[in-house]
Design goal:
Elements lengths: L4 H18 L13 H11 L14 H9 L18 H7 L2
């Protein structure tokens, strides 16, 4: 995984910049609502920490992830497996 860390960080940097262009409550392709781009990029972004990438170093990624996780009907990647999920809501349940 370390082999591609620089490439992954570069891709996340591009994603972070795109989210910055869309504004504080914007999405990847639009400023007003999520699109298939958000759905497609969410799992890879959420699980980036498995590759040793700290998402907190990106200003726009954590709020975007939280917006996705607050959408109606959101389902965690691995329901009930707090050890596998990195979702904001799932991480909150990890301390219970």
């Amino acid at each position: 995984m370390v082999r591609f860390k620089a490439e992954a960080e570069h891709a996340l940097h591009l994603l972070d910049e795109q989210l910055a262009r869309q504004g504080r409550s914007g999405w990847i392709a639009t400023q007003t609502h999520p699109s298939i781009a958000d759905v497609a990029l969410y799992p890879y972004t959420r699980l980036a920490s498995m590759g040793g990438i700290d998402l907190e170093t990106f200003q726009n990624l954590p709020p975007w992830l939280a917006r996705i996780e607050s959408l109606p009907g959101y389902q965690p990647l691995f329901s009930g497996r707090y050890d596998l999920n990195f979702a904001t809501i799932e991480m909150a349940g990890k301390t219970k």
